[in-house]
């Protein structure tokens, strides 16, 4: 009897150790790269380069986007080899319209496209995409509804809750405020002096930020002139979701692990079909206050932290914008996300002759 229970316990121990071993093996293999699908990404990307074709409808009036990631995306696309003049070979259709277009104007535009071209009706807009800075809202007009529900929306990050449809819509990586040459220097070779650094102009009240201001482990600045130095000398860079996130890519590139403070699930991170954000950034709720925040940050082991930092630096090349698009940069990775969305069912009326 004693022998029997001993062997049962031994078996259990063995299984538990094996499980641990399996778990650590899978943990290292899945987190050794910052990608969601490291085995298919590069082949798919090459295939995209050689085959992806996009048709652009002629805008009603010439217009420009002024905000950098939007203008960079639009201008890079218009001048890219992905553009085709032949709609019959296009995988996707781009509907350009000005950033301040009203819901009514959008509805009218879709109605015009529906009548004057055969492409909208085939998928009710599912192989179409558009660029709108803050995303578009709902409407009761049929044309506006199809645009909102079926077409791929490309907007700035972060979006307003409700104006982003997960798995369909795309956000653009924020435009990095630092020159690229500086970003490429990567992390500083020093130990961090602060646990967390945050840019906070105080325009919105936040209990958590007020608490953090009184804590010497955090550095909170309104408009720091030495932002890059502070990023490089902090272990974590903190962002209140939706407020000031433009320097998030800079944080990642300089090895300051991003911590996004948010109380609801978020699915609108840039390159969310490419990068495994859960290995690059932390999401922490604000309701537990500074005590909970510090528990989470101090709870990250040195190995785990080092890996997040390294994966972030590796991922940052995909998040930066270039005035002349470069392989695997933000422009190309947004195009890649469009490429992943090219499979739609077309309800075409075939004419058999
Ligand atoms: C698309 O369908 C609508 C009806 O939903 C029709 O009025 C329109 O003429 C069709 N467009 C084309 C180009 O056939
Ligand atoms: C950081 O600096 C130390 C001492 O100067 C040096 O030994 C080490 O190789 C450096 N590490 C990197 C990654 O540059």
TL;DR of this structure?
It is a single-pass type II membrane protein. The protein is about 40% helix and about 10% strand.
Shape: globular
| Unreliable sequence segments | 1-30
Question: Treating each run of at least 4 consecutive H or I residues as one helix, how many helices?
Answer: 13
Radius of gyration: 24 Å
Spell out which ligands are present.
2-acetamido-2-deoxy-beta-D-glucopyranose
The overall number of domains is 2
How far the N terminus sits from the C terminus, by CA atoms, comes to: 82 Å
How many strands appear in the DSSP assignment? 10
Keywords: Glycosyltransferase, Golgi apparatus, Signal, Signal-anchor, Transferase, Transmembrane
Main location: Golgi
Subcellular location: Golgi apparatus membrane
Membrane topology: Single-pass type II membrane protein
What do you see in this structure?
With 353 residues, the chain is an alpha/beta fold. It has two domains: 2-175 and 330-340, no CATH class; 180-319, Rossmann fold (3-Layer(aba) Sandwich). It is 40% helix and 12% strand. It has 13 helices and ten strands. It has helices at residues 2-31, 38-51, 68-78, 103-116, 119-123, 142-150, 180-183, 207-213, 227-232, 248-253, 289-299, 302-315, 330-339; strands at 54-56, 92-94, 128-131, 152-156, 170-172, 194-199, 218-221, 234-240, 257-261, 282-284. The strands form two sheets. It has a five-stranded parallel β-sheet with strand order 1-2-3-4-5, with helices on both faces. Strand 8 (234-240), helix 10 and strand 9 (257-261) form a beta-alpha-beta unit. Helix 4 packs across helix 6. It is globular, with a radius of gyration of 24 Å. The model is unreliable at 1-30 (pLDDT under 50). The protein binds 2-acetamido-2-deoxy-beta-D-glucopyranose (2 copies). Residues 114-115, 118, 121 line the site of one 2-acetamido-2-deoxy-beta-D-glucopyranose.
């Amino acid at each position: 009897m004693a022998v029997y229970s001993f062997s049962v316990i031994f078996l259990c121990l063995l299984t538990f150790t094996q499980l641990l071993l399996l778990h650590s093996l899978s943990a290292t293999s899945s987190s050794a790269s910052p990608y969601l699908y490291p085995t298919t990404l590069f082949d798919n990307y090459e295939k995209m380069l050689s085959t992806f074709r996009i048709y652009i409808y002629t805008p009603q009036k010439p217009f420009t986007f002024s905000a950098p990631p939007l203008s960079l995306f639009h201008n890079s696309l218009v001048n890219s080899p992905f553009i085709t003049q032949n709609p019959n070979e296009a995988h996707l259709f781009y509907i350009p319209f000005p950033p301040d277009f009203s819901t009514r104007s959008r509805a009218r535009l879709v109605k015009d496209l529906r009548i004057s071209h055969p492409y909208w009706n085939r998928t009710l807009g599912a192989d179409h995409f558009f660029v709108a800075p803050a995303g578009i809202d709902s409407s009761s007009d049929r044309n506006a509804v199809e645009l909102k529900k079926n077409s791929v929306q490309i907007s700035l990050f972060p979006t307003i809750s409700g104006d982003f449809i997960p798995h369909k819509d795309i956000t653009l990586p924020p435009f990095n405020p630092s020159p690229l040459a500086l970003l490429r220097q990567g992390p500083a070779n020093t130990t961090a002096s602060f646990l967390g650094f945050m840019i906070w102009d105080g325009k919105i009240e936040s209990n958590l930020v007020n608490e953090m201001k009184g804590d010497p482990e955090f550095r909170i600045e309104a408009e720091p002139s030495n932002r890059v130095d502070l990023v490089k000398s902090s272990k974590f860079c903190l962002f209140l979701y939706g407020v000031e996130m433009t320097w998030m890519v800079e944080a990642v590139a300089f090895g300051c692990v991003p911590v996004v403070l948010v109380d609801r699930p978020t699915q609108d991170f840039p390159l969310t079909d490419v990068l495994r954000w859960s290995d690059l950034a932390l999401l922490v709720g604000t309701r537990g206050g500074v005590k909970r925040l510090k528990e989470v940050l101090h709870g990250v082991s040195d190995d785990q932290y080092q890996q997040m930092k390294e994966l972030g630096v590796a991922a940052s090349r995909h998040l930066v914008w270039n005035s002349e698009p470069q392989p695997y940069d933000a422009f190309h990775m947004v195009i890649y996300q469009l490429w992943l969305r090219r499979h739609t069912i077309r309800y075409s009326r075939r004419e058999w002759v």
